[in-house]
Design brief:
Elements: E1 4-6, E2 9-15, E3 19-24, E4 28-34, E5 37-40, E6 46-49, H1 51-54, E7 64-67, E8 70-71, E9 74-75, H2 78-93, E10 96-98, E11 102-108, H3 114-126, E12 131-136, H4 137-144, E13 155-160, E14 165-171, E15 174-181, H5 185-200, E16 202-203, H6 206-216, E17 226-233, E18 239-245, H7 246-270, H8 273-282, E19 284-287, H9 296-304, E20 308-310, H10 317-327, H11 329-332, E21 337-340
Parallel strand pairs: 1-10, 2-11, 11-12, 13-19, 19-20
Antiparallel strand pairs: 2-3, 3-4, 5-6, 5-7, 8-9, 12-21, 13-14, 14-15, 16-17, 17-18
Helix pairs in contact: 2-3, 4-10, 5-6, 5-7, 7-9
Length: 341
């Protein structure tokens, strides 16, 4: 394999709770994989990352430790996150060589503490990255949706990710009002587990809950989509099957959706009147993988009485925005936070 030489390797990373996506300047998105890593406990060697490691979740023997290093948008397992990112960068280095090192832009949720931001930066620096920039995910998502966030007008975006939902009112290249809540695809999965246990006396794992969520992917009452769940009957302890319907999905995540709506309403109540006029005219933009569940847009629209626009390919909104920043780093420098040298 011929290694391509670049003066600087500019890498963008959406280091998500569920999935990590990587963008390389002038190339585009080069990697998408689950943010999971598996170790051999006996010698601490890496067995697998990404899909292979994710397939081990809930099925691993005692000698294998399967770790999700990012939880609810925060680096909770520093060493494992470091090794995970190192492995991701290693794959890129096999094809590309940066003569003057690597610069990296990483998307982070709103409301991270300075310590949490430093944790993200330290992970990247520990991988040998020369310079690290952070960008708030709703800013990146808005850029990825081709919204003009630098004008004196209000852009309201809701980014439902794997670990967090970031809700922000943006104007003049900054977040006017914003909140990050620890609700996302993972809490949807947990809601399904709890709902099935309560309603059907059936114990299932989060992995199967995720499969049901993706397969049904619809909370509209009239939908006829379904998924067969297999687990353990609480009463008999024996294997049991139940059919999971869209109505079950709706009931499972309703509390989380109501929390998202409440925060949207809070931000709308605090919005400056002039920006509120912009929102009334243009509506709210929905991004992130969670917005792929059909019916979430209409649910929010009914509750807040504003038009909801699901952006194109919402799952990739943040990494597309990070890619835009990489392609014109000088112009978008003002959007970046916590620059390290």
């Amino acid at each position: 394999m011929i290694v391509k030489i670049k003066s600087n390797l500019l890498i963008g990373v959406d280091l998500g709770t569920a999935y990590t996506k990587v963008y390389l300047k002038e190339i585009g998105m080069v990697t998408e994989l689950p943010t999971v890593i598996a170790f051999n406990n006996q010698n601490n060697s890496v067995i697998a990352i990404g899909d292979e490691a994710k397939n081990m979740l809930g099925r691993n023997p005692q000698n294998i430790n399967v770790v999700r290093p990012i939880l609810k948008g925060v680096v909770t397992h520093f060493d494992e996150a470091l090794v995970f990112l190192e492995k991701v960068i290693e794959k890129i280095k096999k094809e590309y060589l940066g003569l003057f090192g690597i610069k990296m832009v990483i998307g982070v949720p709103l409301d991270l503490t300075e310590v949490q931001k430093k944790g993200v930066i330290d992970v990247a620096l520990g991988c040998g990255v020369k310079k690290v920039f952070l960008v708030e995910e709703p800013m990146a998502a808005a850029l990825g949706a081709n919204l003009d966030i630098e004008e004196a007008r209000g852009v309201f975006i809701v980014d439902i990710g794997g670990g967090t939902t970031d809700i922000a009112l943006i104007s003049l290249g900054g977040v006017v009002i914003g909140r990050s809540i620890r609700i996302g695809g993972d809490t949807f999965n947990l809601g399904i587990v709890n709902h099935i246990k309560s309603k059907y006396n059936l114990v299932i794992g989060e992995r199967q809950a995720e499969e049901a969520k993706i397969s049904v992917s619809n909370i509209l009452v009239k939908s006829n989509q379904s998924f067969v769940l297999k687990g353990r009957d609480i009463i008999t302890g024996l294997p049991k099957e139940v059919t999971f319907h869209s109505s079950d999905l709706r009931e499972s995540i309703l509390e989380d959706l109501e929390e998202i709506v409440n925060v949207i309403k809070d931000i709308l109540n605090l919005a400056p009147p002039d920006l509120l006029g912009d929102i009334s005219e243009n509506g709210i933009y929905l991004a992130g993988g969670g917005s792929l569940i059909h019916g979430i847009d209409s649910f929010i629209e009914k509750e807040v009485k504003l038009k909801i626009n699901v952006i194109e390919e919402p799952k990739y909104s943040v990494i597309r925005g990070i890619g835009k920043i990489l392609e014109d780093l000088n112009h978008y420098q003002k959007l970046l936070i916590n620059v390290s040298s």
